[in-house]
Amino acid sequence: MDAHPYAPNDLSLPGFVPNLLSANTILAVFAVATVIVVSLAWILPGKEYSKGDSRYAARDAATVALEGITAVLEGPASLLAAYAIATHKPYNYVLQLAVCLGQLYGCVMYYTTAILEGDKFASSPYYYYAYYIGANASWIVIPALISIRSWKRICQACKGDGRNKRKSH
């Protein structure tokens, strides 16, 4: 039997061929490729999206702050919510509700700051409606639907809990 790095050690893997590259080399190549892909995704679509909202190209402080909060807080919380859903954790609906309310709050702030500044950030009506309105619609509609569903599930769970019933004296 060929030696392999998997457990258990006596696992039979006929025809096992070890990696040609070390784990560190594979991780380094992956890291470099990720940086290149993310950079291109930031540069190309980001520049295109900026035609619908030039605050991204201008690095508007409010927009950068909202996107930063979304990336730092909402991103990891979304991953945790996906894990909670996949593993049927009891807190999955609470987490979904929290993530969605955070997303909806971000959308309210995103549009409110634009309105307060004159809503003049699109290069044409096409980009305004296609990118600024259309591309962002899913960031409102989907979290709103998930919030409603999560709220209903949380309320159902609370109704079904015997500890919430009042004792009559």
Overall pLDDT level: 90
Q: Which residue ranges are poorly predicted, with pLDDT under 50 across at least 5 consecutive positions? A: none
Distance between the termini: 74 Å
Question: What's the Cα radius of gyration?
Answer: 24 Å
β-sheet strand percentage: under 5%
Count of alpha and pi helical runs: 4
- Total strand count, please? 0
Shape: flat
Major sheet description? none
Helix content: 55-70%
Q: What is the string of helix and strand elements?
A: HHHH
Decide which structural class fits the backbone. mainly alpha
Can you describe this structure in just a few lines?
The protein is an all-alpha fold. It has four helices and no strands.
Q: Can you describe this structure?
A:
The chain is an all-alpha fold and 169 residues long. It is flat. It starts with 22 loop residues before the first helix and ends in a 9-residue tail after the last helix. The model has no long low-confidence stretch (mean pLDDT 90).
Topology:
Blueprint: H1 23-49, H2 61-86, H3 92-116, H4 125-160
Helix pairs in contact: 2-3, 3-4
Name the features.
single chain, 169 residues, mainly alpha, 67% helix
